[in-house]
């Protein structure tokens, strides 16, 4: 399997594949394809894993594309302006932000995980629901805006707005903590929660939090007339 990432504003990852090779994605992820590719839609892991994907902002069903002829081409595009990046989960397992999964090889397993601090979920902390990516093969992630990568030393701490976290290696410890000070919580404009990441390991960040961007646009939408 060969791939290339094309486009800049809303990029796509295009694969050239041989007979027998396969990829899977959430439903609705396909951009274009040539002939010779079989499509199969299923829950991939059963009903409970499907429900877990819904909690993580993904679709209930996954779609597997299996190539039946050599040199077949297929592409998947991002849903918002930003970037697409590959991660090799055979080298290291990752925890990824919900909604960042785009497409992966069949040997990659994506599972929904919940932060142990349940209060973060009750009060809307984005880092409460994450996804674990492990196994063997390549997994491609969507990034809102530009990609920033950091390598944390053992014990080094990085605090990030939860919506700006894309992924981090499983050697990195993470927890959701609240912003200190009532005034900061109410008037700081940065939300109540921060993600605390402690090294060692690789951290992938995004420069745009699309949910924040969407809320800003919503403020300028005309109110619906009754």
Describe this structure in words.
The chain is mostly beta strands and 226 residues long. It has one domain (2-219): Double-stranded beta-helix. Helix content is 13%, strand content 48%. The chain is built from four helices and 19 strands. It has helices at 47-55, 118-122, 182-187, 210-219; strands at residues 2-6, 12-17, 22-26, 30-33, 37-42, 62-67, 72-77, 82-88, 94-97, 101-104, 108-114, 129-135, 138-144, 147-152, 157-161, 165-169, 173-178, 193-198, 201-206. The strands form four sheets. A six-stranded antiparallel β-sheet has the order 5-6-3-10-13-8, with no helix packed on it. Strand 1 and strand 2 (12-17) form a beta hairpin. The radius of gyration is 19 Å and the shape is globular. The termini are far apart. The model is unreliable at 118-125 and 182-189 (pLDDT under 50).
Beta-strand content bin? over 45%
Helix amount, in percent?
10-25%
The low-confidence runs, each spanning 5 or more residues with pLDDT under 50, are 118-125, 182-189
Q: Can you tell me the CATH architecture?
A: 4-Layer Sandwich
Radius of gyration, CA atoms, in whole angstroms: 19 Å
With strands numbered from the N-terminus, the spatial order across the biggest sheet is 5-6-3-10-13-8
Q: Could you report the average pLDDT, rounded to the nearest whole number?
A: 81
Distance from N terminus to C terminus (CA atoms, Å) equals 55 Å
The global form is: globular
Instruction: Note the run of SSEs as H and E.
Output: EEEEEHEEEEEEHEEEEEEHEEH
CATH structural class: Alpha Beta
Characterize the main sheet. Answer: 6 strands, antiparallel
The domain count comes to 1
Tally of contiguous helical segments = 4
**CATH topology (fold) name:** Double-stranded beta-helix
Instruction: State the fourth-level CATH superfamily.
Output: Mitochondrial biogenesis AIM24
The structural class is mainly beta
Strand count: 19
